[in-house]
Design a protein that fits this description.
The protein is an all-alpha fold. It contains nine helices and no strands.
Length: 230
């Protein structure tokens, strides 16, 4: 039970970090603001933000579920993960942690590029916000890619969680976006303060989480690869 709760908490935290990382946060605010101007009333702005968050969350769940299910459905891969997961996870956590700390950098890359479709969805109100969130979720930045591929997927595969942990991660990615949508809808004057707070939280949280990932990875390497006993 403790392992399940720890996995849920980790997946939720990774989702929140993914959403408040600089690149995703900027695209989230831009998308919600643009859609919000189209839908008008404050309540509908909040609903649009929730729909956008749901679209992102569903995309993450589907991608993670497909990858984890594919890995676990291949007998050799599934057996390898069951036997060697801790050996694989150690180096993965170290790389993901160093990426969060900014000590290593990956080339910038994005997912789908569909400008015309994005413009059309942005003008389609709340239903369009759902599709816009799904498209933007596939545009990974290096840090968000590290959190998703280096953090969530190994965690979900190691616990053989095809849906639960990806779903919790998706919920985590949506929480900050809903909060920003609420600020945009009911307190536009406080958006600057909210962004400053999110920026400070993101910097501290990313460094702390990166450090924990590196230490956990080193521990797994020493105990499961080098063979040092604890």
């Amino acid at each position: 039970m403790t392992e399940v709760l720890a996995g849920i908490g980790t997946a939720l935290w990774l989702g929140i970090l993914t959403s408040i990382s600089p690149c995703p946060l900027a695209s989230n605010i831009a998308a919600v603001s643009y859609v919000g101007r189209r839908v008008g009333a404050p309540r509908r702005v909040l609903l649009a933000g929730m729909a956008y968050s749901l679209g992102r969350a569903l995309t993450y769940v589907v991608v993670a579920a497909v990858v984890v299910t594919s890995l676990l459905s291949v007998p050799r891969v599934s057996f390898f993960l069951q036997q060697r997961m801790n050996q694989v996870l150690g180096p993965v956590l170290i790389v993901a942690g160093l990426l969060m700390l900014g000590w290593i950098r990956l080339p910038g890359f994005t997912g789908l590029s569909a400008g015309a479709l994005e413009q059309r969805l942005a003008g389609a109100g709340i239903p369009g916000a759902l599709g816009l969130g799904a498209i933007f979720a596939l545009s990974f930045c290096p840090v968000s890619a590290g959190l998703f591929f280096g953090g969530l997927l190994p965690l979900a595969a190691g616990s053989q969680s095809r849906l639960l942990l990806p779903a919790i991660y998706g919920i985590g990615t949506g929480l900050p976006v809903v909060a920003v949508s609420a600020v945009l809808a009911f307190g536009a004057g406080g958006i600057g303060r909210a962004l400053d707070m999110l920026t400070r939280v993101e910097r501290v949280a990313m460094r702390v989480t990166g450090g924990v990932f590196v230490l956990a990875g080193i521990y797994l390497v020493l105990t499961h690869i080098v063979g040092l006993s604890t």
